[in-house]
Design a protein that fits this description.
The protein is an all-alpha fold and 241 residues long. Helix content is 46%, strand content 0%. The chain contains eight helices and no strands.
Length: 241
């Protein structure tokens, strides 16, 4: 059940960041001390304990702050809330109440169409305003997050072996059944085996590269950002308070 939450994977990827673990080993000291003040010690294997610890850490870090304004008649300038002026989620309209109701409805509908650009369906995180201390960098399925981390862990275990004992990338993929249609079958021809090995190796390389980037970027408060800083210009960063 916990693995259905993207925040479980945020915690799981942070556990793989060696700089952050070093910070935990130092009791919160080091170059990631500021992040440690928010996320605390992640060395335990108990996600629930981490989530609820330190005055309910999870809700404190990730909960959106409610914005209760729906519709309000502002009858005096003293009732105007200064927070509305710079809030892109608030639009103020003045209406001449001597105009007929039907005409006002037409005018309001036209004004609303110009200022309310929302669409039905899931909102892209890059376009959504967040009030949380830490918000998700983009939408990624929990299945993909699990697959990337499982591949990374298997790859890391393989690289820790003596050179003579290491297996090729495609064998890593087969060991975790990474690509279902690239799994071997007894009747596969030599050409089919070669093609499947290529598909599996490509998938392993891609997932390891993405996992590495996420693990690196999670130390900057970004998750899940799978773009390596070496591949592009500095990534778009959300404000972390």
């Amino acid at each position: 059940m916990q693995q259905r939450s993207p925040y479980y994977w945020w915690w799981a990827y942070l556990k793989r960041n060696s700089d952050y673990i070093d910070c935990c080993n130092r009791g919160g000291a080091g170059k990631l001390a500021r992040l440690y003040r928010d996320f605390g010690d992640v060395r335990s294997d108990d996600f629930r304990e981490w989530w609820l610890g330190d005055y309910e850490r999870g809700p404190r870090l990730f909960a959106e702050k409610p914005f209760d304004l729906r519709l309000k008649v502002v009858t005096m300038k003293d009732f105007f809330n200064e927070d509305w002026a710079d809030n892109e989620n608030v639009a103020l309209f003045a209406a001449n109440m001597t105009i007929g109701r039907r005409k006002l409805q037409q005018l309001f509908a036209a004004a609303l169409a110009r200022h309310h650009t929302g669409r039905r369906g899931r909102v892209a995180l890059g376009d959504a305003a967040s009030t949380a201390m830490y918000s998700l960098y983009r939408n990624v399925s929990q299945h993909n997050l699990r697959s990337m981390l499982e591949t990374y862990d298997a790859w890391l275990e393989n690289t820790a072996l003596p050179t003579a004992q290491r297996v090729p990338q495609w064998a890593i993929g087969e060991s975790i059944r990474l690509v279902a249609n690239a799994m071997p079958r007894p009747r596969d021809t030599a050409a089919e085996r070669t093609a499947k090995h290529s598909v599996m190796s490509t998938a392993v390389n891609r997932y390891v590269k993405q996992a590495k980037a996420i693990i690196a970027n999670v130390a900057a408060g970004e998750f899940p950002n799978s773009v390596s800083s070496r591949d592009t210009a500095p990534a778009r960063k959300r404000t972390v308070t």
